[in-house]
């Protein structure tokens, strides 16, 4: 069975801002880390699983036990993970993968967000906001008369260097075709005042179009950045249209990563720092496996002064705009072709 094309108006009326806030508040009551706070991480994992099951989803816990992995440190600080390298002797964690009963997931679109936070930060924006959006998307998609070919993922150990997403990308692609991936990475912090949006060093030279759009917007941090590649351009534009059609009229800036999918794109990122910023979350392992992917973000440390700090708390987030992000993402996933 197939579904009719979705419009953001099919989802937005059913997005509940109070539920988004409730989910963020529960998850960000304490920092979440498999290594530093395993009990809190298990608490968060149980909460997410229960919410997904309550919404009608089947949840699979995929544990992993990895040795000698190059990653990052999850200490507090504003530096990107690529600037905080660490060799991990052993990492034991688990991802959560969910699907709807009756859906044809031989080919699927994956929506994902990471569940962990850095040491000492409750991680309301980074990344309880993304997880809350995934949970609300689960509730939205469960309402559809025909179960869409969409899967959900909550990744472990993103803050240690995308460890969970790397494992998930390998496992999922070995058993089904993943036609696309949407990564929700720090999606709840917005500022309307000018000169609140910063750009990475070298960004204006490497990406003049996105830089010009940011400048024309008065360097206001009131938009969602949609990072994509050539293979996911259509999905990025679909998300832009859906977000603009929400009641908030949420603006977007599209940023195309010029690198190709696969190993070559990953290698280029190691030597071109502005490009490396575009692969700082869980979409990157899917790019590396030639899967079209987009990352949605409020740009994290380039906007949010609370990034990776104890002040990353729920009251700093804009739940009305997070609701718009949620509705636009559900729409894009269902319409992905």
Automatic annotation (TrEMBL):
It comes from the Bacteria. Residues 95-202, 276-330 form the Peptidase M28 domain. InterPro entries: M28_fam, Peptidase_M28. This is Zn-dependent M28 family amino/carboxypeptidase. It comes from Streptomyces pseudovenezuelae.
